[in-house]
Amino acid sequence: FALLYPGKRQKNNFRRFSFDDFSTLSFEEPDTKTFRCLDLAYRAIKIGKTATAVLTAANDIAVEAFLAKKLPFWRIPDVVESTLLVHKNREYSSLSEILEVDSWARNKAHEFVVKFGN
Fold first, then answer.
1. Where is the DXP reductoisomerase C-terminal domain (predicted)?
2. Which of 13, 39, 48, 77 is least buried, going by the fewest C-beta atoms within 10 A?
């Protein structure tokens, strides 16, 4: 569904996935060089404080710009990383502080969309 948003789910001829069809599953380490936003998310979690709020806000703006055809897909991590790099990470103690950081990050991410955009 997410790949077709905002459209509706399309019918296909594929069988539904069933875990019963697989006796074992194996998982590999994620490729954080290819999937840079995953690496940025891991880093924001390790840093803590307001970094995760900034990451989320910047990602929201970058994806919104991509969907509006204002930013190439491959530039999404550039917007997110640039926003994180200029953010002065700090502790927070209230929702209003998080909302303030969120607003700042969204505005800053818009600036980077203009810089990296089409």
1. 2-107
2. 13
Residue 100 has pLDDT above 90, yes or no: yes
List helix spans (H) across the chain.
36-47, 51-67, 76-86, 95-116
The pLDDT value given to residue 5: 66
Domains of the chain in start order, with CATH, are: 34-116 (1.10.1740.10)
Q: What is the C-alpha separation between 28 and 69, in angstroms, rounded?
A: 33
Instruction: Give the residue from 86, 74, 92 showing the smallest Cα distance to 111.
Output: 86
Per residue in 47-85, pLDDT (tens digit) is 999 999 999 999 999 999 999 999 999 999 999 999 999
75 burial level (CB within 10 Å; 0-12, 13-18, 19+)? buried
* Residue 9 burial (CB count, 10 A): 8
